[in-house]
Write a structure and sequence with these properties.
The complex is a heterodimer of chains A (about 200) and B (about 350). Chain A is built from six helices and seven strands; from the N terminus they run βαββααββββααα. Chain A is an alpha+beta fold and about 200 residues long. Chain B is α/β, with parallel strands linked by helices and about 350 residues long. Classes of the chains: A alpha+beta (about 200), B alpha/beta (about 350).
């Protein structure tokens, strides 16, 4: 099986102390989470080796096209893939993990199966707020890269998500997502002091 | 084509006049409201604007050496921004447009910050990093509009810096000789204190960082210099990190940093290091045009007018929450070859 290594390189624009702490913490968390999700049988890269002091992780290379490119290429299967992705994200959330960067370029399709990659910003959390942020980030990525397909892709994603977590939980999550989006800057739907 | 543009969304009443041939900028008049204490008081700012508006227009025309009859259009920033402030500019523009029968061009303030930057650097398809008192977002053109990749989940970078400075008792004034008080205070900072560094995907969040920094100060657990240094390093690094990731995702080859906070020399240096590392062109809008001004409104108004965008005066209402990704950009003609 092919493998890929990921080294967190030092960023010269960051204070070295901040850099060290970010590299160490993120490397450690990513390795733990990859191992745990894989043990649960979820479609994420297998962890082969880790050296926190070097910021090094060696993991399975998931070979296949990016979901982003399949969507751009107009593949017919994208709706099924996005629904599968919704299910995968729900299972990851069930494991008490949030991915932190769900975009269509972090999804690879291998032998007709959807894999989520790059857990660099992932962390442990069961808070509704954090789960909802994951969904918000996915919506944002679809809005900014596949605007015209936004509605249908999101519907598929949420259908897949609800198939694992149930309709009731999914609806309460979507309410939270809405709340987060309303908090943003210059949201036109938001009207402060509507009653005045 | 000659267009007059009016800006009044926050603390600056600006009237600019531009034309489509070089030199593009014919006039740049600004009246800046400076609060004695605290932040911008919208009503006081708008009253200050009202008393200076007629003079601003007269002075701009004088500076440009054009008569009002020679104008091809009047552009105005209708949002986003503070309602009372925006209304002064809108009223002025509606009056000029209807009295002199000129096309009235509605301009989005955020789009104007971007377009003046593109003009200065001759950029075609940049990744836009927009940092100001009201905005913190990363965007690029896709399918006819600027699409937002990432933004702040709570307060803006400028808001973060200003509030921190105010709570620490070192502002107003917020900026002294081109440098923010937080940057000044950070110069003497030696120790790095761990504070919340929040990056979620392409989004950032500064409210937790602000609260923690203020708490440290109130409990006298760290020196003001160290607090400023650490908080600033974390906030700036988060911005650079999401910008760098957006470049990697999109393959864009130009970075345009716009908005008032772009003036920070410290932040600028960090952008330079990152751009060199990634081999992309960097354009940081110089302080003169990074802050709010009428020229950018006039210039964007001119581009819009050339594409037939104008409204009747009664349609020109202010939109306090007019978001960048709601504006159609008619001159959008990207060739994919610009990106790798």
């Amino acid at each position: 099986m092919h493998s890929v290594y990921k080294v967190r390189v030092r960023k010269p624009y960051r204070d070295p102390r901040l850099d060290t702490s970010l590299i160490k913490n993120r490397c450690e968390t990513e390795a733990k989470i990859l191992a745990e999700l894989r043990l649960r049988g979820l479609n994420v890269p297998a962890l082969y080796y880790v050296d926190v002091s070097k910021g090094l992780i060696v993991m399975e290379f998931i070979e296949g096209p990016l979901l982003r490119d399949l969507i751009r290429g107009g593949s017919e299967k994208i709706f099924k893939y996005v629904e599968d992705l919704g299910g995968l994200v729900a299972s990851i959330h069930d494991a008490g993990v949030v991915h932190g960067d769900i975009t269509t370029s972090n999804v690879v399709v291998r032998s007709d199966e959807v894999y989520l990659i790059d857990f660099g910003l992932a962390r442990y959390s069961k808070r509704l707020e954090d789960l909802a942020t994951d969904i918000h980030l996915f919506i944002r990525s679809v809005e900014s890269t596949h605007y015209s397909l936004k509605e249908s892709l999101l519907r598929c994603f949420m259908r897949g998500y609800a198939s694992i977590k149930g309709r009731e939980f999914t609806d309460s999550l979507l309410l939270k997502v809405r709340e987060i989006r309303m908090r943003g800057r210059y949201v036109e739907e938001r009207r402060v002091r509507r009653d005045i | 084509m000659i267009v007059l543009g009016i800006e009044s969304s926050a603390h600056t009443l600006g009237v600019g006049i531009v034309r489509d041939e070089p030199p593009h900028i014919l006039a740049d008049v600004r009246f800046v409201y400076k609060p004695r204490t605290g932040g911008i008081h919208p009503r006081e700012a708008s009253q200050y604007f009202m008393s200076n508006a007629p003079e601003a227009v007269r002075e701009a025309l004088r500076e440009a050496g054009v008569k009002i009859s020679e104008l091809d259009g009047v552009a105005v920033a209708l949002g986003p921004g503070m309602g009372p402030c925006l209304r002064v500019g809108a009223t002025l523009a509606r009056a000029l447009a209807s009295y002199y029968a000129k096309p009235l061009v509605p301009v989005n303030h955020a789009l104007a910050h971007i377009e003046i930057g593109k003009m200065i650097f001759s950029f075609k398809d940049p990744l836009v990093v927009y940092l100001s008192g009201g905005n913190t977002l990363i965007a690029s053109l896709s399918e006819g509009r600027y699409r937002i990749f990432g933004e702040t989940l709570d307060i803006s970078l400028g808001n973060f810096l200003d509030t921190l400075a105010r709570e620490l008792g070192i502002a107003p004034p917020y900026v002294v000789s081109g440098m923010h008080q937080v940057d000044r205070c950070a110069q003497e900072g030696k120790n790095f204190i761990e504070l919340p560094y929040v990056v979620k995907g392409q989004d950032v969040s500064f409210s937790g960082l602000l609260t923690s920094a203020i708490r440290l100060f109130k409990q006298s657990r760290a020196s003001m210099n160290d607090i400023c240094y650490s908080a600033r390093e974390i906030a700036y690094s988060a911005i650079i990190e999401v910008s760098e990731r957006a470049l990697a995702h999109t393959g864009i080859k130009e970075v345009l940093v716009v908005g008032g906070v772009a003036s920070s020399p410290v932040l600028r240096r960090k952008f330079e290091v990152m751009s060199e590392l990634r081999g992309v062109k960097l354009g940081v809008v110089p302080p003169q045009y990074a802050v709010d001004n009428g020229v950018m409104i006039a210039w964007t108004g001119l581009l819009l007018l050339k594409h037939g965008v104008h409204v009747r005066p009664e349609e020109a209402r202010v939109r306090q929450r007019w978001k960048l990704d709601q504006v159609d950009v008619p001159w959008f003609t990207r060739t994919d070859s610009v990106r790798s």
